[in-house]
């Protein structure tokens, strides 16, 4: 019977997790306004030669900038536009984009290269701040609320069932007044 309760509680947690998991992003999201300047951090050391890639929806990935560190200063190799530059930030070569345009939106990755060994850094999704992003947050918290509500309902049903079963077992084990009287008359 214990396995029934364990399975029920486990099902409740899985149900809640299924509402949460689709909304956990695979990359960090950074919001920006058109025309502003944004700096995308890289979690790879500046000791790596760094290449920045952009993936727009329905397009192949594009190299937007290559950079390295020489004599303590960042040096840019290739850049797809003069609006893209490199900046030292937290011991890495960050990508700085000035005058952000719609075509700049997308998923960015930094790739480090040391002795022909490539390492892919954390991704950053560059999105424009808008009503759509607040709608996403509303949907996210709505799903979290529904998941928690389902978990609470499953737990309430389990507890109610458990209490009802406990009361039934207690009632069956406790002798009633009529059965005690009946036992006394049989013994006389």
TrEMBL record:
Transmembrane helix in keyword set: yes
The stretch of residues making up the signal peptide is 1-26
Name the principal localization, coarsely classed: membrane
| One GO cellular component term | plasma membrane
Tell me which residues make up the Ig-like domain.
25-110
| Protein location | Cell membrane
Q: Which UniProt keywords apply?
A: Cell membrane, Disulfide bond, Glycoprotein, Immunity, Membrane, Signal, Transmembrane, Transmembrane helix
Presence of the UniProt keyword Phosphoprotein in the record: no
The source's domain of life comes to Eukaryota
SMART domains to which the protein is assigned, alphabetical: IG
Alphabetical GO biological process terms: immune system process; response to bacterium
Q: What is the name of this protein?
A: Ig-like domain-containing protein
Q: Which organism is it from?
A: Etheostoma spectabile (orangethroat darter)
